[in-house]
Amino acid sequence: MAKKVLKFGGTSVGSIKRILHAAKIIKKEHDNGNKLIVVVSAMAGTTNNLIEHSKGISKKFNKRELDVLLTSGEQVTSALIAGALNDLGVKSKSWLNWQIPIITEGEHSNARIIHMNIKNINDYISSGGIAVVPGFQGVSKSGDITSIGRGGSDATAVAIAKIFQTDSCEIYTDVDGVYSSDPNKIPLAKKIDKISYEEMLELSSLGAKVMQSSAVQSAMMGDIPIQVKSTFTEREGTEIINQDNIDYTKAVTGVAYSKDDAKITLLGVEDKPGVAADVFEPLSRNQINVDMVIQNISTDGKKTDITFTTKRQDSKNAISLIETNKKIKYEKMYMNDKVSKISIVGAGMVATPGITFKMFRSLADANINLLAISTSEIKISVIIDEKFTIDAVKKLHKTFKLD
Amino acid sequence: MAKKVLKFGGTSVGSIKRILHAAKIIKKEHDNGNKLIVVVSAMAGTTNNLIEHSKGISKKFNKRELDVLLTSGEQVTSALIAGALNDLGVKSKSWLNWQIPIITEGEHSNARIIHMNIKNINDYISSGGIAVVPGFQGVSKSGDITSIGRGGSDATAVAIAKIFQTDSCEIYTDVDGVYSSDPNKIPLAKKIDKISYEEMLELSSLGAKVMQSSAVQSAMMGDIPIQVKSTFTEREGTEIINQDNIDYTKAVTGVAYSKDDAKITLLGVEDKPGVAADVFEPLSRNQINVDMVIQNISTDGKKTDITFTTKRQDSKNAISLIETNKKIKYEKMYMNDKVSKISIVGAGMVATPGITFKMFRSLADANINLLAISTSEIKISVIIDEKFTIDAVKKLHKTFKLD
Lengths: 403, 403
Hints:
The structure is a homodimer. With about 400 residues, chain A is of the alpha/beta class. Chain A contains twelve helices and 20 strands. Chain A has an eight-stranded mixed sheet, with helices on both faces. In chain A, strands 16-17-15-18-20-19 form a six-stranded antiparallel sheet. In chain A, a hairpin with a 7-residue loop joins strand 13 (about 225-230) and strand 14 (about 240). In chain A, helix 6 (about 150-165) runs parallel beside helix 8 (about 215-220), helix 7 packs antiparallel against helix 8 (about 215-220) and helix 11 (about 355-365) crosses helix 12 (about 390-400). The longest helix of chain A is centred in the N-terminal third of the chain and has 16 residues, at about 15-30. Chain A is globular and about 75 Å long. The two termini of chain A are about 35 Å apart. The interface of A and B includes residues 61, 71 and 143 of A.
């Protein structure tokens, strides 16, 4: 008998049939004697529909009211799941965030959970009831509805696991775990049984859609073990846990790639304090996300080169912002918008010498040229010509024995 | 400058375009210097969709959760209206029922509003803000979400008008007022400028869809004047007010009709106490609504005849319930399921002799036979062959000079 958080994502509750299926999974956990707090997302598509509605009203829809609008989606799913459980003969009720309450602070659409009242729900689940809580939302201290950002249902689940001190936090989703790469594109990608928070964060930020990054981060900070499971198969999922609890037999855990990247290089930039800020500040102000940034040491102490990547759709805008910015002095600017980023991620990397070399050699053997390189403690990313993307990922899978 | 409740029904907020239109109406009232509390229904179709969802889960969907589910609809509209007003440069925010709060008592899906906290909203509207309140819902003393029955947004509007002591309560809807009969079917039907609560109640119960009956009833009890207006035209609407404030120049205010009726007659029923109860109790237990009931005095003191009407779809079930009920003794049962009910309604009727006779003569002149008659203080209803329905309504319009 354990106290558990079970979280069901949008596709897992995306239709009446799927809600009935999720209710059966929950009932089975309940019949096994577990005390359950269930966290649900809005039905797949609902949040986007509501956002479309708000855009139809105004391009700058009031942020307070947007939270009132969007949180209705999870309210609907909570009622349907609780209703389905009652129909299966299990005591259950929905607990909206103001009913618990879940107190947040911070601005609308980007609030943080800071407190929950645990007594009532603890009493309820101890008496055999299943509490169903809408994810993604809370109330501010002043009593306004807030939301904690898209994908925030994961964050709700982790916060509940932490504050209620549950034995586990299980994320039911439409994939059966975290893979070494996207299994739809890379058939030889393998499911990972255990992955550290840090690795998961790197993979998430590199495009693995399994769990929302800020939820992984808060799980890491609270040392909450997460289990990612499929709602639709009975296969074992992936555990996201503390690195210390993983016995690394491999240096590399996964290979991620992002497409639609563009690489911009400024040659002969003055090498003095504040130059990088001058380049990137206007981009940030214009909502252009900069991913990799590489700056080499200047050879003569006067000039340096700066390379960075952005999403392809932002590249033209980035270039014109730099061109029109009088503050930035450079000799030449190059742009290549047909590049992709390939990253190998692995907490075992630190302890295994020669990984960097092995990666570069492997790609060189496949005749793939490296256009830029950036490394962190548990990740090595390279920029290559886009057309080699899948080849590179496959090659690295073989090199690091992930297949 | 006045304090007003403006209520917008489902079709008036049935699309983004209509919400933007409603927001303009509200802004105009605000620009005229009025303090406004706006009550909104769910977007047309939303509540039915949610009910379909609940039925997909369970035929007996949990009532507490049904209220959580359905009230999401008005929450969405409240946010969209408040968002639209902000976009028009008007200070506005949504006030969900737990935020006010609106306290109810009674069972789920059929609760009654018993209390509202008025201070915060009064402060807000005095400071120039527009409060947007979702209709149809409240919270119980124990903090559960409740709903006050379908069409309950009207009741919310009336309750707010009463408790906040507003100067008016304006119901914006998809028709431009109350008509002497359904203007779509009876082109000579005329809009009524002023109608009493009692007349409106009779017309509502006879099928006029303009306003929910229990809302009219509570307006009557609180003596709250109601204005029914069209969201889509600028024509004057109908005032629903105290009978004392109406100068009756006509005895009859409107002619209502219902179709899909069935008439069942039991001949030779024992004339002793409890017989009617024996007949109707099983019908009621099986959710069969009985409309008109007519029982004549028995001629010999032993036997009597009972006639009643039900909806056509219930008639077969009603007959089999009577046939299989051993307690009911009767000689013969007749059923005619091709009948309709025609009613004339008018508070002026009481003071005008000969209305009954005039109605019967008028229908006789048109060769329409009366199959049953039932009268109340401000209404006379007759059952006729269904095929004469429209003819009868037109004829009565002319007879009572409603055209």
